Amino acid sequence: DVKVTQSSRYLVKRTGEKVFLECVQDMDHENMFWYRQDPGLGLRLIYFSYDVKMKEKGDIPEGYSVSREKKERFSLILESASTNQTSMYLCASTGLPSSGELFFGEGSRLTVL
Amino acid sequence: RKEVEQDPGPFNVPEGATVAFNCTYSNSASQSFFWYRQDCRKEPKLLMSVYSSGNEDGRFTAQLNRASQYISLLIRDSKLSDSATYLCVVGQYNDMRFGAGTRLTVKP
Question: Are A43 and B46 in contact (CB < 8 Å)?
Fold first, then answer.
């Protein structure tokens, strides 16, 4: 079974702190994604990566950056957390050829005070 | 207008009922269509893909109408365990768009 693991299930941070969210997948997938999920808005794509050191902006990249130094690991970075970044963050991966099925991690619920 | 729209519900139905969800999408170039299921405080998981000819998986039937740009999910003989949020997903390859989800509660 595909396993996507997110490092932290729950985090509480203060405004202005730097936040790292880690995601690791064990199926040698090429594509990895970071979404945030908010009530009434569904999942919105922040960034995705289709290869090591490659990254593409999604729909809402402002305030975020990402890093993909190894194929299995995709990190989301909040350089200076703000209260409007309080959300559920979901990492996902999919392989090539892609059936389109996204495999998600369990999510990281971030609260910024 | 959102790219993918779903009725948020909630749908509250008794066990054994038949319930249907619709989802409309705005990008006519979309090639891939899916229904995901998300349990409370859990990650989304693929329920089924949606094919042009329609497809069935046990009690679940998915349909695609490209002309009207909507997909549907029909659940027959609802079970308590079907209670969840159902997400419509539309797009292509690296550009998948999610609906906000339709919440279903099946009651005894």
Answer: no
% of chain A beyond a pLDDT of 90: 81
CA-CA distance, A110 to A70, in Å (whole number)?
A: 24
Residue A58, classed as helix, strand or coil, is coil
Q: Locate the chain B residue with the closest alpha carbon to A103.
A: B45
Give chain B's mean pLDDT. 93
Q: What is the mean pLDDT of residues A31-41?
A: 92
Token code pair at residue A70: 């190894």
Q: Are B46 and B107 in contact (CB under 8 A)?
A: no
SS3 (DSSP) at B62: strand
Element (H, E) at B20: strand B19-25
Give the pLDDT confidence of A76-87 residue by residue, as tens digits: 999 999 999 999
Contact between B43 and A104 using a beta-carbon 8 Å cutoff: yes
Nearest of B46, B106, B52, B99 to residue B82 by alpha carbon:
B106
pLDDT value, residue B52: 87
CA distance A26 to A5: 9
Residues of A in contact with B101 (CB under 8 A): 42
Cα dist from B108 to A54, B73, B80, whole Å: 50, 22, 7
Contacts of A105 in chain B (CB under 8 A): 43
